[in-house]
Amino acid sequence: MSCLFETHNATLEKALDACTKRYAWSAYPESPSRKFHGDTAASAGKSRFESLLDQDYPLEQPGEIGRTGAEVSPYTRQPLGIRYPKVDVDQLYPAIEKAMPAWRDTSVETRTGVCLEILDRCAQQLFVNAHATMHTAGQSYIMAFAGSGANALDRGLEALSYAYKAMKDIPTTADWQRDFGAAGSAKLNKRYRLMPRGVSVAVCCATFPLWNGYPALTASLATGNPVVMKPHPSAILPVALFVSVCREVLSEAGFDPNLVTLVADTREEPATLPLLKHPHTAIIDFTGSPSFGNWIEENCRNAQVYTETAGCNSVIIESTDDLTAMASAIAHSLCQASAQMCTSVQNIHIPANGILVNGERVSFDAVAQALVAAVESHLSDTKTAAFLCGALVTDDTYDTLARLRDSAQQRGRLLRDSGPYSHPDFPNARTATPLMIEVTQAESDLYREELFGPVSFLIKGDDADNCLEAATRDARECGAITSHVYSSDPEFLDRAEQAYYLAGASVACNLVGMPINFAAAYSDFHVTGLNPAGNACLTDLAFVASRFRIVQSKRLVTD
Amino acid sequence: MSCLFETHNATLEKALDACTKRYAWSAYPESPSRKFHGDTAASAGKSRFESLLDQDYPLEQPGEIGRTGAEVSPYTRQPLGIRYPKVDVDQLYPAIEKAMPAWRDTSVETRTGVCLEILDRCAQQLFVNAHATMHTAGQSYIMAFAGSGANALDRGLEALSYAYKAMKDIPTTADWQRDFGAAGSAKLNKRYRLMPRGVSVAVCCATFPLWNGYPALTASLATGNPVVMKPHPSAILPVALFVSVCREVLSEAGFDPNLVTLVADTREEPATLPLLKHPHTAIIDFTGSPSFGNWIEENCRNAQVYTETAGCNSVIIESTDDLTAMASAIAHSLCQASAQMCTSVQNIHIPANGILVNGERVSFDAVAQALVAAVESHLSDTKTAAFLCGALVTDDTYDTLARLRDSAQQRGRLLRDSGPYSHPDFPNARTATPLMIEVTQAESDLYREELFGPVSFLIKGDDADNCLEAATRDARECGAITSHVYSSDPEFLDRAEQAYYLAGASVACNLVGMPINFAAAYSDFHVTGLNPAGNACLTDLAFVASRFRIVQSKRLVTD
Q1: Which of A279, A447, B11, B519 is the least crowded, having the fewest Cβ atoms under 10 Å away?
Q2: B118: Cβ–Cβ under 8 A, 6 or more apart, which residues?
Q3: What distance in Å separates the CA atoms of residue B509 and residue B106, rounded to the nearest whole number?
Q4: Least CB–CB distance from A515: residue in B180, B514, B542
Q5: Given its phi and psi angles, is residue B393 left (phi above 0), alpha (psi -120 to 50 degrees) or beta?
Q6: How far apart are the C-alpha atoms of B128 and A156, rounded to whole Å?
Q7: How far is B415 from chain A (nearest CA, A)?
């Protein structure tokens, strides 16, 4: 048994238990507090981030044909100036393939141990990762620390646990003996070997570079496949830091670091297609736009494809006992990370004649105003706003906001306009507060797709059941990663659960007093694979079981 | 917990244990002996078969637009005259979909219990199934009884066990509670529901109608999907009998029988494509030709596709301690079921300068002659020949034999000609003994594909390693389901195991004294999915884990 596996075995055992029972647990520190990290860790992380700027990123890989990278900080709007290896894929793949046999042939425990160590080592660089994530993905410091730190690492450990479980389901040997009557009898010794599929490519997204990056890597690497990490051109650094850790741990454990490589690119000169279409690419994990995700599902036939894309996440408001708490919870989702999360709410369905609040009828307009007021409240001081909203990952979002502002004026009602907020630390930060638009279902072409960024719709339905019908139809047809229902009527909740179930979408009911965007590793099955928002779930057995195959040998035993 | 589940729970538990430890076990009777079945079962089964001939098959399904079927017994060459429902798929599917909700919404235990009862009920009709299989697939009585009986049912139980294991991996509920610091705290009750993918189509093959039929059905049905069984036009009856059992058990258990339906057809008027291309078909299990299997893999993008096709199974002879036993074992494979099995050997690689037998060199020609003699020995009396070879499922095989006989004369050497053997019970039986051809590797275009039927090649290699190289290359490039190596040199065996492992093919070493075609449920992972002989394994977690998805709901718990 490998030493790294022993070192981290208790963590793995706990993760396996958490996956089975699905309670709340984290293996990694969520808080940046000096209580946990000491006095110097935070500033050391920041210094390390700063030391990487305007430099060649310290990564040597085969097939380097120059340097690339054009990241711009959403906070300073200045280029990061980090130059990553520009890689010739046709030179890279042979080096990767050279690395495969030793990794393939080692034990499940050794591979799992290396992956556990990688996650642990990443947990030790959460401060630099937080700064790297801020200045690429635009997340706020605290979200970059926790959401892109512990929460994402937990997803990696969760996927690793499933991979381990699926591999350990197969014994390494078996004795088999039977009598065939007149046809004889035999005693066989059988040996079962796990065989990776081949090169695994993980395409990461701009806003949460590692949330799918960690699980894609651990799922594939643990099952024996080398992994090429392909970051989004605007968020390379967090992925590069991760790749560096992987290569360091692999080397220390005596394996070829080329088992994990980075292929960086720029928007102008994209490098994704040659990876996806390479004949030796056997597995693709993709997070990003639905259109590219669908294209991959349709066109990358020779690879196992796992996608998480996006849809139009909705809220249905039927009734509530606490309008303020509910409005605050929903408004939190509209603000958090400037609604650039895959779990951000976009479409809020409200009956035209209002809702019951503690048995008293409250009009549509009053509910709408409560939501607007709750957003204002979250934004009331710039420090909180900055903490909650972070920055926009791309200037394109301003175009979306402008377009939708026009649409609102022509086809609905502008309930709340979007504007920048002043970031207390970064005066040049690319910011935008929520744009909130009232429409009827007749304008559904406006909202039946993901509008990336802080755009939301308050959609008038005939009644609560009509809202439910519209929201679940959108989930089924256009995809949804999260859906919310607020109701104090248990029968309506049951009906809603059933309707979402049939739409192939998961649903959360009456969430207040917590960040409702939160998806919990080991507990929430993230993405159902049944609606257009992705074909795979993070994480279940199906996410890992096909990443390897079984080859067996059997030998006659003669006594 | 359902009553059927309780009834069969011990069987399921034992199957789960067998899958985990992979020892020899069977849940069903392999022997037709009256010791086990009493005096009347055999004749009752035969009578039941005879009573079905020249009749409308007793099956009523929605969408019937006439009757179809053109089966001809390979033993009597007479039409069976059984008329099956001819089905309009567009009328059938709505009826199937009407049946889905109750099945989807019932418990894992209820669905598993129904599947266990189906298998058990099938085990009670093994005699009629044996006659049905003989007179469609051409199997001998004993193979039709055991190979298409217990051995196939065991595969069904194995797949069911994996499906059960994968589903039970997910709890039905969980309590989740955590503190978000300043952002609040929450207690959630979560509920996880398993959601089937949709209609599952199982395309069965002509020679072993239910060997994949049982596992495809149990894997899909247990996970909540209705199943359309699509038999090969020449082997409908065994599948129809199975469908009848499924419908009977489903009805008795209070479910809609349309959860399992039959779509029969004829060669002239095939019905497979409308099923495969139906937009509501979500899962396809296919057994049959590599070309159709590949077409499905490429073109049925919206369904989960599981294929088992064929390749060119090989033997490498490096050395042996017992030439007679080895030759007998290989010859058995050349004869058994007229080499129409997916595990039948086709390509026998022998070094040009012969092999060592107990340390003594034996020439290529002498080895070849030993193989020919062993075939003759297996055919020496017509009763044994009939028992072993059965009949040809199609007249087309005579064309293959004629074509290869010509090729042999032009490009190699005819070591043994094929001819009919006289069946003791069926004078009109469509029979053929093994055609054995000596060639060099220069003629590889002849043998680098499955030649369906009793055709084999004795292929001269430069030396044993050259034989190994050729055989593993063929396995990797053209597919293989079984591969054999005979060697008394442990180093060569190690090398061979490694080479097959790298070719993505399983290998059996030195099998003698048993039917080497035998693939054991609960122990042998059948098909690796890594070479062109199929993309799926019967049975592993990957075979079942994607047949369902998980949808969750979570509700805030207020104390």
Answers
A1: A279
A2: B217, B218, B245, B246, B249
A3: 46
A4: B180
A5: alpha
A6: 53
A7: 26
Q: Angle, to 10 degrees, between the axis of helix B237-252 and the axis of helix B126-137?
A: 150
pLDDT the model gives residue B225: 98
Residues 6+ apart with CB under 8 A from B185: A513, A514, B177, B178, B179
CB B286 within 8 A of CB B321: no
Written as six digits, the tokens of A167 are 């591999």
**B476 torsion bin: left (phi>0), alpha (psi -120 to 50), beta (else):** alpha
Nearest to A228 by CA among A61, A420, A418, A45: A61
Question: How far is the C-alpha of B150 from the C-alpha of B143, rounded, in Å?
Answer: 10
Question: Which of A98, A68, A95, A62 has its CA nearest to residue A81?
Answer: A68
For residue A185, list chain B residues with Cβ-Cβ distance below 8 A: 513-514
Tell whether A295 is within 8 A of chain B (Cβ).
Answer: no
Using CB atoms within 10 A of its CB, is residue A44 exposed (0-12), middle (13-18) or buried (19+)? middle
Quote the CA–CA distance of B546 and A336 in Å, as a whole number: 33
A401 to A310, A437, B498, B510: CA distances (angstroms): 18, 11, 59, 71
| Eight-state DSSP code of residue A434 | P
Pairing between strand A260-262 and A413-416?
unpaired
Q: Cβ(A156)–Cβ(A217) under 8 Å?
A: yes
pTM of the model: 0.97
Q: Tokens 């042996």 identify what position?
A: B320
pLDDT digits (tens, 9 = 90+) for A449-481: 999 999 999 999 999 999 999 999 999 999 999
Residue A518 touches chain B, beta carbons under 8 Å: yes
Q: B258 near B99, Cβ under 8 Å?
A: yes
Measured CA to CA, the distance from residue B100 to residue A227 in angstroms comes to 40
Using 50, 70 and 90 to split pLDDT, how confident is the model at A273? Answer: very high
DSSP string, A372-397: HHHHHHHTSSHHHHHHHH---S-THH
Q: Is B338 left (phi over 0), alpha (psi -120 to 50) or beta?
A: left
Distances in Å between the Cα of B382 and the Cα atoms of B333, B371, B555 are 17, 19, 72
Chain A contact for B358 (CB, 8 A cutoff): no
Q: Name the region of A255 (left: φ>0; alpha: ψ -120 to 50; beta: rest).
A: beta
* Chain B contact present for A525, CB below 8 A: yes
End-to-end CA distance of chain B: 31
Q: Does the beta-carbon distance from A540 to B550 stay under 8 Å?
A: yes
Does residue B559 carry a pLDDT above 80? no
Q: In this structure, what are the phi and psi dihedrals at residue B221, rounded to the nearest 5 degrees?
A: -70, -40
Q: Are A250 and A257 in contact (CB under 8 A)?
A: yes
B/e letters for B222-248, b = 16+ CB within 10 Å, e = fewer, are bbbbbbbbbbbbbbbbbbbbbbbbbbe
What are the tokens at A347? Answer: 């479409």
Residues in a beta bridge with A85: A67
Residues across chain A:
559
Q: Region B11-38: what's the mean pLDDT?
A: 96
Amino acid at B8: H
pLDDT one-digit tens code per residue, B228-256: 999 999 999 999 999 999 999 999 999 99
pLDDT in tens, A138-161: 999 999 999 999 999 999 999 999
8 Å CB contact of B551 and A518: no
Q: Please tell me if residue A504 touches chain B, with a CB cutoff of 8 Å.
A: yes
Task: Quickly count helices (H) and strands (E) in chain A.
Answer: 20, 20
Residues paired with B317 in a beta bridge: B486
What are the structure tokens assigned to A178, written together? Answer: 């039977």
Work out the minimum CA distance from B293 to partner chain A, whole angstroms: 14
Measured CA to CA, the distance from residue A325 to residue B374 in angstroms comes to 84
